[in-house]
Hints:
Layout (H helix, E strand, L loop, with lengths): L13 H6 L21 H4 L9 E3 L8 H17 L2 E5 L5 H15 L3 H5 L10 E3 L14 E8 L16 H26 L6 H5 L6 E9 L11 E4 L5 E5 L7 E5 L2 E4 L7 E5 L1 H6 L9 E3 L7 E9 L5 E2 L17 E2 H11 L5 H6 L6
Parallel strand pairs: 1-2
Antiparallel strand pairs: 2-10, 3-4, 4-5, 5-12, 6-11, 7-10, 7-12, 8-9, 8-11, 13-14
Amino acid sequence: MNKLQDWPEPIVRVQSLSESCLNKIPERYIKPSTERPSFSSENNNIDHNVNIPIIDLTGLFQADQNVRAQIISQISMACREWGFFQILNHGVRPELMDQAREGWRQFFHAPMEVKQAYANSPKTYEGYGSRLGVEKGAILDWSDYYFLHYRPTNLKDFNKWPPYPPSIREVIDEYCKELVELCGRLMKILSLELGLREDHLQNAFGGENIGACLRVNFYPKCPQPDLTLGLSSHSDPGGLTMLLPDDQVPGLQVRKGDNWITVKPAKHAFIVNIGDQVQVLSNANYKSVEHRVIVNPNQERVSLAFFYNPKSDIPIEPVKELITTDKPALYPPMTFDEYRLFIRLRGPRGKSQVDSMKSPKCY
Length: 363
């Protein structure tokens, strides 16, 4: 772990580059031609008329079994076919969602000395950052971020949370508490749909001893958005991700087959996606899916990604009830600590980590 103590090169804040009124982006941010986004449907397999499923959760936890069954069926289809869906009427107050996103926007517009006081390192990533991975000379993404721990409680440290704007710490705390509860409800639905006890996946994650963290993404304006990405293609290494997007500025793209679908965010909806750990537990019945973020020449974007993860030292492997003669266990046991070290060393690399775990006989 010694190689994770510091960054291999001096950190440059992307927001500072953007605000310096560059006409061209530095070479360090130019992606290979095969990875660059295109804003033309003809040459980048983009269908602008398609969106990920939008699911209204009204009635999910009420008595009407028909309504409940219909919602569970919609979630099942989304997890198996898309790996992504949006949820409405999820129980988190719209005012809290707006306060959280706009509070973070204020933080990113604070003076640089305020933000620099919380600069992060590769050791935990907690704090104000501008790159992932410690590979020297790597091509970088056009974004800054703030990463913080919420669970387990021994990692939750208010002193590492920003003090500006003045109410941000209280807002973050309430927001994360609400999302832990929402993710717990969704885990029950995923378990039941797989034919398991409703607490099965939650117990596999460690019961109440789960991990949870927040990554706030800031994507500044970019003079050459066709040459770079705000976040390179990857699947999320954890369990479930709850994304609060900027509903005014689309940017998230999800891979569907050979196509990239630009997500159209619904107001006060969360974008939910399956992470690698749930793919492993479900023996690939549920899919974690590649996604990436494009940037905008005229508008900045702020989004909040909340990660609901297993306890870091519990081996994660396919649930025994989901292993059959026709579909043997696709993945060996591995703890989340072991798994996410890959991301911390190399940065986002598509689905290469979870795919590399598969037994050769399963291809």
